[in-house]
Amino acid sequence: MATTDKAESAKPQAEEVGWETKVRYFLNNDLVRSSPFWGIPFLLMGIAVYGGIGFNTAISLTDARGLTPPDYSLGNLDFEMYTQVLGSSAFISAAQNNLVLLIVFTTICLLLGLFLAILLDQGIRYNNTVQTIYLLPMALSFVITAQVWLWMYNYDFGVMNIITRAIGIGPVDWIGNPSIALGSVIFALIWQFSGYTMVVYLAGLRSLPDDQFEAAHVDGASTLKTYIRIIIPQMKEASVSAAVVLMVFALKAFTFLYALTGRYRPPNGTDILATLMVRQAFKLGKWAYSAAIATYLLILALGVIAPYLYYQYRQGSL
Asked: Organism's domain of life (predicted)?
C-alpha cells in the first residue's frame, strides 16, 4: 500500500520535471535565442509586405476615388472593381503587352545569355573584356538605361538612326511608332539583362566536371553535339532560376517606361499593367480601381514564382 502511494506521488513530480525540461530545451533552442536579432526585422517586414497586400485588397473592395476616404462597411465591400478592370479595353491591351514583354524578353535573354556563356566557356580571345562589356549594363539602374536608349533612339541624332541612314532605310521613330515601340523597349531591356543570364549560365557550365567533355571527345562527338546533347540539358536549374528573375523584372518594368517620357503614360503601344496601375491611381485618383489592377498583378507574379518554389521543393532545395 505504501509502495503504491509513493508511486502515485512520484508521477506529478516526473511530469513536472518533464515539462520543465521541455521548456528549458525550447528556450535554449538556437532559433529562440536568436529571436531578438531576427524577430523585429521579421515583424516589420511582415507588416510592411503582408500588411500592404491586405490594405490594398481592402481598398480594391471599396469604391475609393479622389480624396474621398474609403468606406469599409460590409455593405459597401464587393468585387465591382475587379469586374470593371476585366471589362476594360485598356487593361486587356496592357495585359497583352505585358505578356509579349514577358515571353519575348525572357526567351531572348535566356538564349543570348546561353550563347555568350558557351563562347566564354570555350575560352575565346578577350574573354574578360567580352564578359565585362555584357555584364556592365546589369549594374545600371532602369533610369540610366532608359536615358541611354532614349539618346540611342533619338530621331535626329541617335545612333540607331545613324545606322539606318547609312544602310539606306532612313530615320525610324523607334519610340513614337506604336507598331515598333514595344519591340524597341524589349531590345533595350535585353541589352541590360542578357549579361545576367550569361553569368548564371557561365557559373553552371564551369561547375560541370571536365570528364564529360573528355568522354564525349573520346566517343567522337563534336563540340556542338556535346553541348546540345550533354551540357545544355544539365542547365535546367540555371534556366529556371534565371527565367523567374527575368519574368519578375518584366512584370515591374514601370521605372524604365516612366523614365522614357517622364510621364505616367508611356509611349503608345508600350502600356503595361504597372504603368496602367500607377496612372489610374496618381493621375486619375481611382484608388480602388488601381488597387484591383495591383491585385491582378500580384496574382500574375505569384503565377510566376509559385511553380518555381514548388520545383525547388520537389528538388529538396527548400
From this structure: Archaea
How many domains, the chain?
Answer: 2
Task: Report the half-sphere exposure of 136 (CA within 13 A, side-chain side).
Answer: 8
Q: What's the grid cell of residue 38?
A: 531576427
Q: Which of 290, 289, 307, 304 is nearest to 254 (CA)?
A: 290
Q: How far apart are CA 165 and CA 159, in angstroms?
A: 10
Asked if residues 312 and 318 have their Cβ atoms less than 8 Å apart, the reply is: yes
- Which of 111, 137, 135, 119 has its CA nearest to residue 243? 111
Q: Is the pTM of this model over 0.85?
A: no
DSSP bridge pairs for 65: 68
Residues 223 and 207 occupy one common structural domain: yes
What's the rounded Cα separation, in Å, for the pair 75 and 77? Answer: 6
Residues 72 and 100 in one domain: no
The CB density around residue 85, as the number of other CB atoms within 10 Å, is: 25
**DSSP per residue over 250-274, as a string?**
HHTTHHHHHHHHSSSS-STT---HH
pLDDT tens, residue by residue, 190-215:
999 998 999 999 888 888 877 777 78
Q: What end-to-end distance do the CA atoms of the chain give, in Å?
A: 57
For residue range 240-272, list pLDDT tens digits in order: 889 988 998 888 788 888 888 878 888 888 899
Sequence-separated (6 or more) residues with CB below 8 Å from residue 83: none
Q: Please give the residue range of the domain that contains residue 122.
A: 82-315
